[in-house]
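Late entry, written up from scratch paper. The run itself happened at the end of the previous shift, but nothing got recorded in the book at the time, so transcribing now.
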Amino acid sequence: MRVFAIAAAVLVGAPAMARAGATIEGTVALPPAVPVPAAARYPFATAEQIGPPDPPTAIVYLEGDLPPPAPVHAEMGQQRYQFAPGLLAVPRGSTVAFPNRDEEYHSVFSYSKPKRFDLGRYRPGEEPPIIVFDTPGVVRLYCEIHDHMRGTILVLDSPHATRTDAQGRFRLDGLPAGTYTLVAWIDEQVVRRRPVTLRDGDTVRIDVPAQ
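Output as recorded:
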C-alpha cells in the first residue's frame, strides 16, 4: 500500500537542514503466514488455482493532534481467488473500487459497523459500485461464493500511514514536529502503540516487538 502521508519535496542540491519534516523507520514483528486452502473446495469452471493470500503485514500510522487526512481513491480487487491487497488502509472519506480480475463470479460484502454493504455477485469486466468509507474503523470483507476469501480495510483519521512489507519494515516521511503515538495495527486484537517525540529533520528508529 502506498503511503498516503504528503511528504515535502527535497530540492536537488539543498542541504539536509532544508528538508522539512521528520522520519520514523523501523520494523514490526508480524504473525506467521496463513496456509493456502485446497483448490478442490470449489467447483471452478476455470483451471486457475487459488493463489496464496498476502503475507501478514501491519498498518503503521501516527496518532495525535494532526490535521484531517485528504481522501484518496484506492482499489481492492479479487485476483486468484483472494482479495488483493488483503489489507488496505485509507483515510476517512476515501473511495474504494472492487474489480474482479478472475474468470468467474465474485461478490463483496461486509457486515462491519463502520461500513455495511453488499455488492452482490458480479463477473469479470462488470463494474460494481464504488464504496465511500466515511467512518473510521475496521471493515472486514468477504466473498459469498468463496468463503475462504478475507479482506480488511482500515479507515483512519490520520494523514500519515503506511503498510509494512512482508518483513515488517516501514518508513514514514514528512512528519510534523510534536509528540504523538505511533500505532502498529495487525488486527483488532493486536494493536501496539509507542510514544514518539519528533523534531524537524529527525530520523527516529522504532522497532515494535511481539508482545
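Confidence is low (pLDDT under 50) at residues 5-18.
(Scratch paper discarded after transcription.)
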